[in-house]
Amino acid sequence: MIDKPREIALKTLYEIDKNGAYSNIALDEQIKQNKKILSNKDIGFISEIVYGTTTWRLTLDSIIEKHSNLKLKKISTWILNILRMGTYQIVFLDKVPKSAAVNESVNLAKRYGHKSSSNFVNAVLRKVEKKDFEDFEKIENNLERISKCNSMPQWIIEQLLDDGNDIEKVESICKASNYKPKIFIRVNRLKDKKENVKAKLNEYGINAQEAELPDFLALEKINDIKNMKEFKEGKFTVQDEGAGLIPLVLNPKENETILDACSSPGGKTTYIAELMNNKGKIVAWDIHEHRVKLVEENAKRLGIHIIEAELQDATQYLEKYKNYFDKILLDVPCLGIGVLKRKPDIKWQRKKEDIDEITQIQNKILENCSKYLKKNGELVYSTCSIFKKENEGIISKFLEKNKNFEIEKIEKNLSNYFDKFIEKNKFFEIYQNEKTDGFFICKLQKIKE
Q1: Helix runs in 216-340, H state only
Q2: Active site includes 384?
Q3: pLDDT tens, 338-354?
Q4: Which of 87, 274, 377, 399 is the most buried (most CB within 10 A)?
Q5: 184-237 pLDDT, tens per residue?
Q6: What is the secondary structure of 98-149 as a DSSP string?
Q7: DSSP letter assigned to residue 409
Q8: Which among 334, 369, 384, 442 is annotated as catalytic?
Q9: Is residue 300 pLDDT above 90, yes or no?
Q10: Does the reported pTM lie above 0.85?
Q11: Going from the N-terminus, what domains does the chain have, and what CATH number goes with each?
């Protein structure tokens, strides 16, 4: 008999691997389809398998390759993911007996492969040991060792080294990309006080603790957060503290007119509105209609009415908005290398060549949207990436061409923890660590027309 949670995990991994689905969206969809037959424990196990297998894919493939008499590219997507799941359980999950990992993988192979597939899966997984991972730590070549010990594509390691980071720092960044991410929520100050929400969550048995930023709480022991009554009532939203820091740097005020040019799904947009006490005007853009609707839905749930969500490409100039906005947020599309612990599939979907393509878009958005800012207005440029070409490189190129802009000093008064990441008071440059994601924030001011 097939173990249902493992089968659901397998189907999710197939969607990610074969169809390029985002891990969080594919997982949510599978859980939604099977909600009636799954316990919270099942959902936790499925999530562990999906995110763990996706995160450690390169390492798992290296171990499978060691024990397989077939090249990986000759193994079907179903069987390869069964092998990855089994190997992940054997090497990384101490609470799962090896016999269970092997037997359940064999059962899955009987259903999703040919007659010989189950024998092949059995033969490979019986050879897999925890020692296989420990052997990677003995590799002398630094690039190969860091890559296999941390499941990181070598091109990312090389890019981080090219950016001027030493090998120890690069290894630390790669290691941090595999930490299990903390769950943070932002309490909606328009609807309730943080202490009330914290008390209610603790009543539910959820461990809610103070976070670094004033409107945020860190949560433990939580499942299915979006079905909670308080979430549906708009008393809080799920948001990482790093993302929440960006609107705080923008520092919006009541009755200002603000543009969020890359807004979906609306986490930062709605926080800007909350900081404005729902007074003023926010124009929020996205290039996809369904993502514009996400912004509208989030605003409605949170009780916000000052956001005007529009279908608009930020790379296309609109004359009507010239010198129109008091403040602008450009949380531009990026490679996302700073959020790998939340979205591990990014590692396998991105390529080195993507850097040039994405920086062209980033340059165009900044160049274009800067024209919408009033004199003395402020613009925040941010990414959840950690490559210098996407961050300092974009800012430097822009300032060379636009002498009417300058970097505005970021004051060290946002948080004792985050303040230490401000580089020479010019910008935030945070590499992912145990506590937060990696991101970049720079504030510019338009000093003349």
Answers
A1: 229-232, 241-250, 267-275, 289-301
A2: yes
A3: 999 999 999 999 999 99
A4: 87
A5: 999 999 999 999 999 999 998 899 999 999 999 999 877 678 888 999 999 999
A6: HHHHHHHHHHHHHHHS-TTHHHHHHHHHHH--THHHHHHTT-SSHHHHHHHH
A7: P
A8: 384
A9: yes
A10: yes
A11: 4-134 (1.10.940.10), 139-176 (no CATH), 241-446 (3.40.50.150)
